[in-house]
Every structure is written in C-alpha cells, then in structure tokens.
Write a structure and sequence with these properties.
The chain has 9 helices and no strands. The chain is mostly helical. Helix 1 runs antiparallel to helix 2. It starts with a helix and ends with a helix.
C-alpha cells in the first residue's frame, strides 16, 4: 500500500508539473483562447473540493475510456488503480502547479528577460537558459508544498477503492479489529515520508539558491 501511494504521489506530481508548465505558459504568453482555457481550468479545479473532483474524474474518466474503446471496436477494460490515481491527482495538481509556476516566473527580474531577448534568444532557448533556472528558487517552496499535499491526497483515493496505504490499512484494521495499531502505523509512515521529503527539499532549495543573497533573518 505504501509503495502504491508513493508511486501515485510521484506520478501525480510529475504530471501536475507538466500541466503546470503548459498552463503557466498559456496564462503568461498564450493567446486569448489559451489564457481563457487555462483560467477556466485553474478556477474550476481550485473551486471544487478535491474529493468531488476525484469521484468525477475517476468514474467519468473510466467510463469515457471504455466508451472510446467500444467506439473503436475494442472490449471494455479495467483501468489500473495506480494509473487512474496518477491521472486524477495529476489533473488536480496541475491547476495549483500552474499558479505556483506563474507566480515564480513573474518574480524573475524583468531585466534578465529583456537582456536575453536583446541578445536574440528564441522563446525555447529563453525558457531553458533564463526562465526555468531563474524561477526555480521562487517555485521550490510552493512545489514542495504541492508534493507534500500529493502524498496525503493519495489517501482520498481509498474512497474509490484504489489499493493505496489508507485503503490497505482500513482493510487490515477491519479484518483484525486492531484499528488503533494499524492507523497509528499508517500515520507514522506518512510522518516519516514527510520528514524525509523535508530533508531532501531543504537540500534542493539550498542548491537552487546558491549564489543568491541570504535572507535578512539568516544574516542576523
């Protein structure tokens, strides 16, 4: 159960980050239609409770895939729970990643962007050499929070029967009636993952901020 939760959290974070990059680009540099679509997407996802979105996307998405397979002449299939969980949580994470990355890009000193354009950099080269490296220190705290949220949101997938940590814990506790023991163990696992993640995130943040001036509090 823990391994499934970890795979879902990693996959959802990567999918959400990919969607977030596209969404942030659409909001900042896309045309009117791209900006409107990105705005509708982020507004709806952030307005509707995550549990409701999970129920809608899980069941509606499964039905849509099977309808598409039937239209192509293929028999219906059972979608793997881990794959479905990655898609559902990744879709939700993408809306929040979009806003985190958009804010991080807006935090880049505009002089750097203008200088790169003056040197004739193409949009792709500008993003690879200037935008992405410069926005990383501003984006890491928000993205780190989204990763921690993703690790906990995997527990919501228990409501649709995905075989992750909370679902396995509930099954084991129900079979043995040792609810306190199993749920305390699950809580300890989640806490251990969070502490380990915080240590790794701290090292990444220090690496991303190398060469940057220290905060006033740290200087004191």
């Amino acid at each position: 159960g823990f391994l499934n939760s970890l795979m879902i959290a990693i996959g959802a974070t990567m999918l959400g980050l990919t969607i977030g990059i596209v969404g942030a680009w659409c909001k900042l540099y896309g045309g009117p239609m791209a900006r409107d679509l990105a705005g509708v997407y982020t507004t709806i996802v952030r307005a509707v409770p995550e549990l409701v979105l999970i129920l809608i996307l899980y069941f509606a998405g499964t039905d849509l895939v099977n309808r598409l397979l039937a239209a192509l002449g293929y028999p219906p299939t059972d979608i793997n729970g881990v794959v479905a969980g990655i898609f559902v949580l990744g879709f939700v994470q993408g809306a929040y990643s979009t806003e985190v990355l958009r804010g991080a890009i807006l935090s880049i000193p505009q002089g750097q962007i203008e200088a790169a354009r003056a040197f004739g950099m193409s949009p792709m080269l500008l993003m690879r050499r200037i935008t992405l490296p410069a926005m990383l220190p501003f984006a890491i705290p928000g993205l780190a929070n989204l990763w921690l949220i993703a690790t906990k949101d995997t527990a919501l997938l228990a409501i649709v029967g995905v075989n992750e940590l909370t679902q396995v814990t509930r099954t084991a506790a129900g079979a043995t009636k040792a609810y306190f023991t199993f749920f305390m163990a699950a809580g300890a696992i989640y806490l251990t993952l969070t502490l380990f993640s915080n240590a790794i995130i701290g090292r990444i943040e220090r690496w991303a901020r190398r060469g940057m001036p220290a905060a006033a509090g740290g200087a004191q």
